[in-house]
Amino acid sequence: MRRAPDMAERRRVSLEVTAVARQEGQTAFAGLVKVTDLLLARYSVGELHLIDQFLDAVRALLIDQAAAQSPSDSAAGPDARDSAGTPGRFSASTADRRSGDPGGL
Fold first, then answer.
1. pTM, entire model
2. pLDDT tens column, 55-94
3. Is there a single domain that holds both residue 52 and residue 94?
4. Looking at the structure, do residues 91 and 56 belong to the same domain, yes or no?
5. Which residues contact 21 (CB under 8 A, 6 or more apart)?
6. Long-range CB contacts for residues 93-99, cutoff 8 Å, separation at least 24
7. Is 77 found in the same domain as 50?
């Protein structure tokens, strides 16, 4: 990782993943990726889509319940919803992962 100045906001710094850090991450998670791929291979794309929809619905319920339990809207944390106000999620759907498209994972 390395720090890079934010040209739009001089008081802010961005973190960038270096090639070395990327390789170390791939090495560290290689076993998990392998067994996850084996697990995903057991399901059809349609089944994975259904699971993805179910998990999205559960995630939304959890976020709503956390917000209802809190006196402020920040109970679920700043990253719980994206800029459109929908529950946050990984950049690749489960079905994309199954089809071999890691989509940023």
1. 0.48
2. 999 999 999 999 999 876 554 455 555 545 555 444 444 4
3. yes
4. yes
5. 1
6. 93/48, 93/49, 93/52, 94/40, 94/48, 94/49, 94/51, 94/52, 94/55, 95/45, 95/48, 95/49, 95/52, 97/36, 97/40, 97/48, 98/40, 98/41, 98/43, 98/45, 98/48, 99/45
7. yes
Do 33 and 49 share a domain, yes or no?
no
Position 32 in a domain: yes
DSSP string, 32-52: HHHHHHHHHTTS-HHHHHHHH
- The three-state secondary structure class of 87 is strand
For 5, the domain range is 1-42
Residue 105 maps to a domain: no
Total domain count, the chain: 2
